[in-house]
């Protein structure tokens, strides 16, 4: 499941390339036909992310909410072909070739492939959404209701770490479990959870109420920085240069991107202890018993 950095990256991409542009909206699969008809032909005025939710605003208080879940994916395309957002084009979509357009001035997108829930088409490019766990048109009250169920998102300007601390600081649940709860802190997923706890030296099975406020503040600040870096580069990299085989590597190889995630049994990059893992709340938790002993 994409973590919060990717949803904010998507929001930035939509705002830059589709903000202020009229879009043709359809549901080739048919499951979103009614919702698509509500916003078809409208101008996408704004885009924002909250946690793992993407909101595209079409004016008149109506928003397209997308939650990708485990299997959802967005594919972008233009006259040069398809591309993903992890490593997007540097050029504006459709800029390198003259796009073919239909009679209404929209890009002549290729026939949809597979179960495309939503297709958005501009004058020079298109976007296909497949397999989301949620896709719906909401009014302002509906959007607010979704966001009110979420904890603060470290990537948003309105984020309040104090609100998350009020839950964490009183909870008997493990800090590892709390960081995965979207009603406590929105946008953090399995990788950021494990990596941030390692970087903080916090034993993941400690109860939230056993953390000090200073530990929580440091954890929040580090998560914020890691998420911001993820937005910028389009992938998760949590290792510091001095802990990699090649400190100058750019881009950082995937096998050197994490301290603990997907490294069960391998030696810790810092202390050499074998990385451990276990199932916790249907997800795999990774940690170092040497570096995270407190």
Automatic annotation (TrEMBL):
Cofactor: Zn(2+)
InterPro entries linked to this entry: DNA_glyclase_Znf_dom_DNA_BS (IPR015887), FPG_cat (IPR012319), FPG_N (IPR035937), H2TH_FPG (IPR015886), Ribosomal_uS13-like_H2TH (IPR010979), Znf_DNA_glyclase/AP_lyase (IPR000214), Znf_FPG/IleRS (IPR010663)
Keyword DNA damage: yes
Recorded family membership: Belongs to the FPG family.
UniProt keyword Lyase, yes or no: yes
Keywords: DNA damage, DNA repair, DNA-binding, Endonuclease, Glycosidase, Hydrolase, Lyase, Metal-binding, Multifunctional enzyme, Nuclease, Zinc, Zinc-finger
Protein species of origin: Actinorugispora endophytica
Span of domain FPG-type: 259-293
Cited PANTHER family: ENDONUCLEASE 8 (PTHR42697), ENDONUCLEASE 8 1 (PTHR42697:SF3)
Family annotation (PROSITE patterns): FPG_CAT, ZF_FPG_1, ZF_FPG_2
Gene Ontology molecular function terms on file: class I DNA-(apurinic or apyrimidinic site) endonuclease activity; damaged DNA binding; double-stranded DNA binding; oxidized purine nucleobase lesion DNA N-glycosylase activity; oxidized pyrimidine nucleobase lesion DNA N-glycosylase activity; zinc ion binding
Stretches that traverse the bilayer: none
Name used for this protein in its record: DNA-(apurinic or apyrimidinic site) lyase
Domain Formamidopyrimidine-DNA glycosylase catalytic: 2-92
Catalytic activity annotation: 2'-deoxyribonucleotide-(2'-deoxyribose 5'-phosphate)-2'-deoxyribonucleotide-DNA = a 3'-end 2'-deoxyribonucleotide-(2,3-dehydro-2,3-deoxyribose 5'-phosphate)-DNA + a 5'-end 5'-phospho-2'-deoxyribonucleoside-DNA + H(+)
């Amino acid at each position: 499941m994409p973590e919060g950095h990717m949803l904010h990256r998507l929001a930035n991409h939509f705002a830059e390339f589709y903000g202020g542009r009229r879009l043709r909206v359809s549901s080739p699969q048919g499951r979103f036909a009614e919702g698509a008809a509500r916003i078809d032909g409208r101008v996408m005025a704004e885009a924002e992310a909250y946690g793992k939710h993407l909101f595209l605003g079409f004016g008149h208080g109506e928003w397209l909410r997308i939650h990708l879940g485990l299997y959802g994916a967005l594919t972008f395309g233009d006259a040069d072909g398809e591309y993903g957002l992890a490593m997007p084009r540097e050029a504006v979509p459709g800029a390198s070739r003259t796009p073919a357009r239909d009679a209404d001035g929209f890009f002549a997108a290729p026939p949809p492939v597979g179960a495309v829930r939503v297709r958005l088409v501009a004058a020079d490019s298109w976007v296909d959404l497949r397999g989301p766990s949620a896709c719906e048109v909401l009014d302002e009250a509906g959007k607010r209701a979704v966001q009110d169920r979420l904890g603060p998102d470290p990537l948003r300007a309105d984020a309040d770490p104090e609100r998350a601390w009020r839950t964490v600081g009183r909870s008997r649940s493990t800090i590892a479990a709390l960081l995965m709860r979207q009603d406590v802190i929105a946008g953090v997923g399995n990788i950021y959870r494990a990596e941030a706890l390692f970087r903080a030296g916090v034993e993941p099975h400690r109860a939230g109420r056993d953390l000090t406020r200073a530990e929580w503040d440091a954890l929040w600040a580090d998560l914020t920085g890691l998420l911001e870096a993820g937005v910028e580069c389009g992938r998760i990299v949590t290792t510091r240069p001095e802990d990699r085989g090649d400190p100058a590597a750019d881009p950082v190889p995937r096998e050197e991107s994490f301290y603990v995630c997907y490294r069960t049994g391998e030696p810790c990059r810092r202390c050499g202890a074998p990385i451990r893992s276990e199932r916790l709340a249907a997800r795999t938790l990774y940690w170092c018993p040497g570096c995270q002993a407190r």
